[in-house]
Design a protein that fits this description.
The protein is α/β, with parallel strands linked by helices. It has helices at residues 27-40, 54-64, 80-88, 102-109, 113-127, 146-158, 175-188, 204-214, 235-245, 258-269, 290-298, 326-335, 342-358, 363-374; strands spanning 8-11, 44-47, 71-77, 93-99, 133-139, 163-168, 192-197, 218-221, 286-287, 316-317. It has two domains: 8-269, TIM Barrel (Alpha-Beta Barrel); 286-374, no CATH class. It has 14 helices and ten strands. Helix 6 crosses helix 7 (175-188) and helix 7 runs parallel beside helix 8. Bound molecules: 3-hydroxy-3-carboxy-adipic acid (HCA) and copper (II) ion. 3-hydroxy-3-carboxy-adipic acid (HCA) binds next to strand 4, strand 5 and strand 6.
Length: 375
Amino acid sequence: MDLPERFSLVETTLREGEQFATAHFTSEQRLTIARALDAFGVEYIELTSPAASPQSARDLATIAGLGLKARVLTHIRCHLDDARLAVEHGAHGVNMLFATSEQLRRASHGRTIEELIEQAQMVINYVKQYDVEIRFSCEDTFRTPLDDLLKVYRAMDALGIERVGLADTVGIATPRQVYDVVRAVREVVSCDIEFHGHDDGGCAIANAYSALEAGATHIDVSVLGIGERNGIAPLGGFIARLATLDERLVARYNLELLSDLDQMIADFVGVQIPFNNYITGATAFSHKAGMHTKAVLNDPRSYEVLDPARFGRKRTVAVAHRLTGWHAIAERARELGIVLSEAQARAAASRLKALADERVLDADDVDELLFEYAE
Ligand code: HCA
Ligand code: CU
């Protein structure tokens, strides 16, 4: 596998996530989140700009001063004032962005590509006086002509910054497009490459993965994917994408903390963890149809590409339905201390299927029926 074993997660629940419709984190919650992300093991934590509000600035200073293992970044506009605030409040790095697509340049700052490079140069020269990492990102990368992009990234790389960023701001990019553009950027810069992708088109995780394959070194994620609109690549989903390929890619993270992390953010922003969420969703490790349950009971890897135990989760094998199979029934009987012959298990399965055609069953119905065999 030529995926880099070393890539970094830029966890942006405390920046992009704060832009989620129902997110209003208190300072205490921000601290709790930063500590929890650090315990999980993300390499970077991105915070809202200190220019956003006085409390945002104070919280940046507090979190950057906690002595976490993760580096603390703040996300700023390409303005000298914002950069000054970031430096003054102790950020370990600045994630700067500037809109480069025609759509956003027109609607936002009205500058030409040359003017924008000049402005970035001034801010970068200021920040470079300090021991602060610099990343420059083109907002709306995937609606910016490639020539313009390469011109900007080349210029930024020549200024000696740590990273350039590609942002699929409107969630429009496809995995193939992301691969091609990251590849093209990889060829003209020597610095690291970050990718940030929104999920409007349902490709956030696939795009982040594609970026990694093409040579990106830093991937933006947020817990549950919270962010503007329907958000960005979720931390758990991206972890799932990598872990299904090779567990070594995620071995350095404390994966058993993921469920608590997802639940905590769901509570803070007042949503439920979606039933079909990666790893932590209610049904992520549920098996139902007879063919599946038989194989899973023989060898979990048959239908599980992720080991639930690695994430502190348990598999469930549903028995109380018409798709049930006799292996699952025999297994449930064993759990109850009832030994069934194959013929008995098959007979119990037939009775259960007939019953399930009449009404919705629950686990107690199954157990009752099995106890009849024990008598
Ligand atoms: C936004 C900005 C951003 C920035 C991403 C980045 C985006 O729209 O609020 O700095 O790489 O999606 O473009 O989140
Ligand atoms: Cu974004």
